Amino acid sequence: MKISIITITYNSQDTVEETIKSVIRQDYDDLEYIIIDGKSEDNTMQIVNKYRDRISLIISEKDEGISDAFNKGINLSTGDIIGIINSDDILLPNSLNIISKQIKKNIDVIYGNGYRLFEDGTKKEYKIYPLEQLYKSMILLHPAVFVKKKCYEK
Q1: 56-68 confidence digits (pLDDT tens)
Q2: In whole angstroms, what is the distance from residue 57 CA to residue 17 CA?
Q3: CA dihedral of 87, 88, 89, 93, whole degrees rounded to 10
Q4: pTM over cut 0.85
Q5: Residue 22 φ/ψ region, left for φ over 0, alpha for ψ in the -120 to 50 degree band, beta for the rest
């Protein structure tokens, strides 16, 4: 099952390299990695270009904001499953193998817990809650949500 990971960036020179490394270090063969940059004005693209041979598609052009960049990446992706990992997010090791084994034919969306990492090295776990509580608060962390492409197409 092909997994597309989309990273959107804009002036992300301080964080994008760790994000890229966390994706390209995944031990998963059928990975498409797409970076959509909003025409950064810092060194973001120099960092991205260091990893060009491990990235399936790189686009750097002005966009209309974060949602436009998300949608651009989703429309360009060719994977069966799509994950959005922003330029200050990371994937934990072996994440894609776990996701590919957990998502079944009759499941369109899979999501899980996440961590917030702090500069001092500490982390805070964010636990998921039942979808019925969505009206109360944001219960899903987008870096921990993976959606089948067919859902986006609907």
Answers
A1: 999 999 999 999 9
A2: 16
A3: 90
A4: yes
A5: alpha
